[in-house]
C-alpha cells in the first residue's frame, strides 16, 4: 500500500519542531508499524537525509520502549496493542497517518519522536521497590502465603510496561495510571505492605514534582493503555494516599 | 473537588425540593412559598449551612480554575492530531467550561433572587412576608426578557446535567471507592440524578412562563 505520512521532526529539546510530509510506497500490509518506519528510514538514508528517530527495543510488546502518537491516539488505533505490535493492515491504501511524540511537560522531546521518560524512573526510585536483606539470609518468597486473588490483582497491575501512553492520552497529561499500577503491584503483596505508606506518599510527591498534570478521572488512560491497566488502580492509590497522609507520622 | 462537589449536589436536591413549591401558582401557593423563603433566610441553622454553601461554591470554583491552569501547563505543546472521543466522553474533558457556565448562572440567579430577597424593595404579601414568589413569576413572565431568562435557565441546567454526568461518579473514584459491585451502581445513580435534577429544575421556569395566560 501507498501512504502519506505527517511526521513530527525536531532536532533537539531546544529547537522548535514541525510536522513534515513524507510519501511511502509499497508498504506490506503484513509489516508492523515500526517496520514501516524502518522502511521509511532506509529510503531517507539512501537519499542522504536524516532518518526519523523513534524509540523501540523488544518489538514484542513487553518492554515499554516504543511509543508514538498515531492518528490522534497513543499506540495507534488498535486497542490493547503497543505500537510495535500494531500492523499496517489496520490502515488503508492512500491513508494519511499523523505520527507525533508523546506530549507532556514531563516528557521533553529528545529528537523527533523520541521523548525523555526518565521522570518515570525517578518516580520508581522514590518508592517503587521493596527493601530486602540480601546478605545471605533472604527468605524464600514462596514461603510467604499470598491469597490467589491478591496475587492475580498484583500481577495485573505489574503488567504495566511503563510506556507512558497513559500520560500521552490524558488531556491533563497526568501520570496517575502508571504510578497507581506501580503502587498497587507492591502494596497488594505482603512483602510490599511494610513500606506501603511511605511509598505512596513519596511516589505521588515525585510525580507532582516532575510536572505531570492532575487526574480528573477522565479515563482516557485506561482506554488507551496497551496493557489494559484499570482505573481501580487509581482508586486504590487514592485510598492509600488518603490513609497514609492522615496516618503519617511525619 | 470531590467533597465540595458532593456537598453541592446535596444542596441541589434540597434547593429543588423547596422550589418545586413554585409549581403551585395560586395565591395560597405563592404565600406558602414566601413563608418558606422567609424561613430559609432567617432560621439560624440554615443560615450557617448557607455560609458553608457559599464557601463551598467559591472553593470548588477556585480549585477548579487552579487545576485547569496546572493541567494546561502540563502539556505545553498540543497534538496536531488528537482524537479524544475515541477514549473519553466530552463532559469529562470539559468540566472547566461547564463549571464556568454554571458559575455565571449562579451569579445571575443570585442577583435575580437572593439579592432581591435580602436587599431589594420587593413588597410583602398579605401574610407580611417578602413577596419573592411575585419576583420569580415576573422574572420569567416579563415579555421577551422573561423568555431570554427562561432560555438561559434551561441552557444552564443542561450544563449542570453534563457536569454531574461526569462529576458524580468521579467524586467516588477520587475518594478511592472503585469496586466491581458498587461502581456500576454509583454510575447509574449518577446518570440518573444528572438527568432528573436539572430536568426538574428546568420545568419550574418553563411552567411559569407557560402559565402566563
Ligand atoms: S499504565 Fe499502561 S499506558 Fe501507562 S505506562 Fe503502564 S502500560 Fe503504559
Ligand atoms: S518495543 Fe518493546 S513494547 Fe514495543
Would you write up a description of this structure?
The complex is a heterodimer of chains A (250) and B (213). The mean pLDDT of chain A is 96. Chain A folds into two domains: 3-111, Ubiquitin-like (UB roll) (Roll), CATH 3.10.20; 117-248, Fumarate Reductase Iron-sulfur Protein, Chain B, domain 2. The longest helix of chain A has 16 residues, at 232-247. In chain A, β6 and β7 (114-115) form a beta hairpin. In chain A, the strands form two sheets. In chain A, strands 2-1-5-3-4 form a five-stranded mixed β-sheet. In chain A, strands 6-7 form a two-stranded antiparallel sheet. With 250 residues, chain A is an alpha+beta fold. The N and C termini of chain A lie far apart (61 Å). Chain A has helices at residues 33-46, 118-125, 148-158, 165-169, 176-187, 190-193, 196-209, 220-224, 232-247; strands at residues 3-9, 18-24, 69-70, 73-74, 96-100, 109-111, 114-115. In chain A, α3 packs antiparallel against α5 (176-187) and α5 (176-187) crosses α9 (232-247). Chain B is mostly helical. Chain B has one domain (2-78, 88-212): Up-down Bundle (3 helical TM bundles of succinate and fumarate reductases). Chain B contains eight helices and no strands. Chain B has helices at residues 2-19, 27-42, 44-73, 90-93, 95-119, 132-141, 143-174, 182-210. The longest helix of chain B is centred in the last third of the chain and has 32 residues, at 143-174. The model of chain B has no long low-confidence stretch (mean pLDDT 97). The interface between A and B is large, with 40 and 31 residues. Residues 160-166, 177-178, 181, 225-227, 229 of chain A line the site of iron/sulfur cluster.
